[in-house]
Amino acid sequence: MTDRFAAAGPVPPPVCPARTGATGVVGSRGTVPMYGPDFAADPHAAYERMRTVHGPIAPVELSPGVYGSLVTSYQLGLEVLRDTERFAKDPRGWRAVHDGTVRQDSPVAPMMMYRPNALFADGEAHARLRGAITDSLDRVDPHALSEYVERSAETLIDAFASRGEADLLIEYASVLPLLVFNQLFGALAADGPKLVETMMKLFDSGEEAAQANEDLLRWISGLVASKRQQPSADVTSWLIAHPAQLADDELMQQILLLMAAGTDPEQNLIANSLRLLLSDDRFAGELSGGSMPVEDAIDEVLWNDPPMANYGTRFPRYDCDVAGVRLRKGEPVLVSYAAANHEAAIASDRRSGNRAHLAWSAGAHRCPAERPARVIATVAIERLLDRLPDMELAVPVEQLTWRTGPFHRALASLPVRFPAQLATHAEPFAASAPASARSDEKPGDTAWNPVPSSSIPPAETSSERQPESPQAAKRRLLSFLTAWWRGQ
Ligand code: HEM
């Protein structure tokens, strides 16, 4: 799912703690704001406050002037997510959009406004689109997927292993899912670097985002056309061949959904789990011991810091009472997976091996990619810790900051250091052609428009340690990927 909340709105002024029942802030109309740095720094304190003051459903402000209700209780969350009779997923009945209060350029629009894909559909339309998605994802061979992840991981680790330091968020967690998707969807291996670059522009929400969106849709359209002509063992071809007989537009939108829905949460699952593994005493000492407790760390993150922390947006189809609160038709209700999990975790003494959390949601829209998403995160983390076993956080864990925004639990960066190593120089993906790579592909082939050489930053030659901006880190990574693909 795309995320464009980095530039979320102004921070509301602090108010008397007595008004909220705890230290914190309230937004206009007495709602709890979910978009500022206070919320990002300690969302669990905010959930606790909401529960104390409002009970299981709290009035919240998602971005300045955008209001809704947040469900913080596990049972009630399940009830809302499963109740398709009272609650619609399709946001086209959103009252505040109809009355002009929320505009199409609102910061929450990318996550909440309608698009013609499974995520925003209900009933039979949803079942048809989702059926094509789940059936196609079910055909992914976990072994082939693990291999894609390993190769992508090796490539990315090679880019920073000799430096002895890296920002794992920018240089690893955010890019790896895209390289994997490139292969999963049967794209040319040469398209990987450009896909990464385009998605980065899209997520940056800067001036180039609109162009990046167009480029991406054009690229997906080309991919669909080429797979219609020459199908192979990949998700794009399986979607095309599905009995639901999706039209080209529908195919493009579902592929876009899969790529976008997979990138940000997957990045955060990897990064949040790495943060835990590198900072929590319970995992210390085991990282280099061969039996890395990666699955345990992932489960812990899914309970405590689920990547999609508050989503599950639903719209009441009519005015209704839920837990004594009047919900108005067309006013958004969100389920806080994070708060619900926390409540359930406190109530239960059987946490070990228990996966009853709501991190993947529940009901009709439950994430259809749990299995591949877990494989990607597990293999990505294991590979990294295997290659760089003496890795440690480069700053105290308390100094790590979280991105603002109401929906996700997302680190802003994850700087680490480790003893520098020589790169292994992994082969480009096409060289050993796992399932979906094209056998006729040569370095230089690409389905994107040719990249003018002036836009490719020169490869870095110095290994000097200098602090760098996220933009510089991204440029260096793209430069590496491009050079790597060209065999340089
Ligand atoms: C391979 C990576 C992933 C892919 C391709 C993917 C794909 C999708 C898709 C297509 C949907 C919409 C399903 C529908 O509406 O019927 C969805 C929903 C969802 N995904 Fe994923 N996902 C991925 C990873 C993740 C991760 C890592 C998480 C967090 C742990 C996550 C959490 C969710 C949640 C909470 C929903 C439900 C949203 C709602 O209730 O409205 N996903 N995902």
Helix-strand sequence: HEHHEEHEHHHHEHHHHHHHEEEEHHEEH
Which ligands are bound? protoporphyrin IX containing FE
The counted number of beta strands is 11
Helix content: 40-55%
What does the model show?
There is one protein chain. Helix content is 44%, strand content 9%. 47% of the residues are buried. It is built from 18 helices and eleven strands. Helix 8 runs antiparallel to helix 10 (176-184), helix 10 runs antiparallel to helix 14 (248-279) and helix 14 (248-279) crosses helix 17. The chain has helices spanning 17-20, 37-41, 43-54, 74-82, 95-98, 109-112, 123-138, 142-160, 168-173, 176-184, 192-204, 209-229, 235-241, 248-279, 294-304, 337-347, 370-387, 470-485; strands spanning 32-33, 57-63, 66-71, 87-88, 165-167, 310-316, 320-322, 325-327, 333-336, 392-393, 415-417. The strands form three sheets. Strands 1-2-3-9-6-4 form a six-stranded mixed sheet. With 488 residues, the chain is α+β, with helices and mostly antiparallel strands. Protoporphyrin IX containing FE binds next to helix 7, helix 14, strand 6 and helix 17.
Short synopsis of the structure:
The protein is 44% helix and 9% strand. It has 488 residues and is α+β, with helices and mostly antiparallel strands.
Question: How would you describe this structure in keywords?
Answer:
six-stranded mixed sheet, 488 residues, globular, 9% strand, 18 helices, binds protoporphyrin IX containing FE, alpha+beta, 11 strands, disordered N terminus
